[in-house]
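Data deposition worksheet. Section B asks for the primary sequence of the deposited chain exactly as it was used as input, without tags or linkers unless they were present during the calculation. Section C holds the resulting structure in token form. Section D is free text for depositor observations; keep each observation to a single sentence. Incomplete worksheets are returned to the depositor.
Section A, Depositor: J.P.
Section B:
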Amino acid sequence: MSHDLVNFPFEDLGTETHWKREGELLHRFNHLPYGEAQERAAILAELFAQAEEVIITPPLAIARGHLIRFGRKVFINYNAQIAAAPGAPITIGHHTIIAPNVQIQTGTHPVDPTERQKWAYCAKGITIGNNVWIGASAIICAGVTIGDHSVIGAGSIVTRDIPSCVLAGGNPARVIRELTPPDESTLYALNP
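Section C:
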């Protein structure tokens, strides 16, 4: 098993105290009528470690929102599943767009059958850079870093790091081609 994974024994499952409050907030968020942007933003501010100028279309499923940080002007479409674990946070950069049905999961299970009997699960953090677009139904697995300005194709399963300024896709996701790097001095001029 990788030494940089955080391991959790079965005895620790269910001992966390945040579940009830997080569940109540998620229920409120997912059942608000459309047009309640201010109340939705207030709930997001309570659910996540950082969520300034973030728009999320319900329904949303999360685990341990207090370990998830968003940059500014992030948009997440419906049916997102975002699950962090203790010691394995999730960071999503500024101006990132996440399409419907995307899963971002820091938790995994040991492949070795003996290890799997010792540990309920293991986890490793995920970092998604600035100005990334993740296509519909993509899955971002534990330990992955996606570089700035990259695009992840719809339905891709990202199991390893993706560099900046590339189009990646497939199962497992691989770099398909490089993208032209943006002019950083003017990139956000229309949408600061």
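Section D:
The chain has one domain: 6-176.
The chain has a mean pLDDT of 91.
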